[in-house]
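Researcher: Quick test of sequence recovery. Tokens follow.
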């Protein structure tokens, strides 16, 4: 018998679905004059939050944890890299230390394994814009 999904996982799926709809259909996207700013913001957010474990750019190739795949390796080696980036908040180990802004605080008996990351949908969209640009730079868009 399958174990029911946690409320956090369900919220992640709904929020990510909303982000994908906005990402796919242009709703909530930056205006044409702002895409570079969105990509730059995504790079900064990726370095700050994702860079604790992942290498997020070629310039930071000595950062991250050696057992954690870099953004570039995921894009180059995984055929489903887009889906993985779109659903990262629901993929282990991310739910253990990432939550959406506005979510309830983490229960005291279930502490985060590392310093907790709290992201908004706009920040996730910026990270995804950076990843899309990185993929384009790698010829994988």
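Model:
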């Amino acid at each position: 018998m399958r174990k029911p999904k946690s409320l956090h996982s369900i919220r992640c799926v709904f929020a990510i679905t909303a982000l994908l709809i906005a990402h796919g259909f242009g709703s909530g996207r930056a205006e044409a004059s702002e895409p570079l700013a969105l990509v730059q913001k995504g790079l900064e957010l990726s370095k700050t939050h994702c860079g604790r474990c992942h290498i997020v750019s070629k310039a930071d190739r000595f950062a991250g944890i050696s057992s954690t795949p870099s953004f570039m390796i995921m894009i180059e080696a995984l055929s489903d890299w887009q889906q993985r980036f779109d659903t990262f908040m629901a993929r282990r180990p991310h739910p253990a230390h990432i939550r959406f802004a506005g979510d309830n605080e983490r229960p005291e008996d279930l502490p985060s394994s590392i310093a907790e990351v709290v992201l908004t949908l706009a920040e996730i969209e910026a990270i995804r814009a950076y990843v899309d640009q990185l993929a384009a730079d790698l010829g994988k868009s």
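Residues 50 and 56 are 7 Å apart (CA to CA).
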